[in-house]
Specification:
Elements lengths: L38 H27 L3 H12 L3 E2 H8 L3 H13 L3 E5 L7 E5 L1 H9 L7 H8 L2 H17 L5 H4 L7
Antiparallel strand pairs: 1-3, 2-3
Helix pairs in contact: 2-4, 3-4
Amino acid sequence: MSRSAPKKSPIHRRDPPPPRATLPRTGVGTGRNSPKSAHAPAVLQHIRELFRISQQHFQRIEARCGVSGALLWAMAELKARPGMKISDLATALSVRLSTASNLLDRLEAKVLIRRERGSRDQRIVRVYLTPEGQRVLRTAPKPTEGVIPHALHKMPRAALARLDRDLEKLLELANTRNREAAMKPLAEL
């Protein structure tokens, strides 16, 4: 009896890239700094692909684990650093303290985490996964933090700094900002 190779999830599949849209090199609005340059459609396609892959990953997490991608990432951080304070979790997830607290409320309601107050200082609350939380985390699709955060952490420092500057410029050119949106988990957009 022969065994077939296990199927890889769509996130790991290496499909050939779709054809890139190109625009003519002549005419109005096709200069190097123009938003209609030949690279703009390709960049837009990359952004769409990243978000779609991210959405699909979050859907797999929800289907398999019964928790959102944001909750799973919080659980992964708690597994890596048991006894984290809420402020440390907010920093690790790059969200506001109130957002981290709300995520923990939802995890506590599902009995996936427990909070403990310090014996010396009752104001300090430490958070731990419950055995059920550990079980859920073991069954979760990887990467537990999500596709985009995982990829960002793998990028070389210089490339990440360049991407940060370029995205900042893109937001500036978009002529609108939403700092609240910047502090919400991708799984909850």
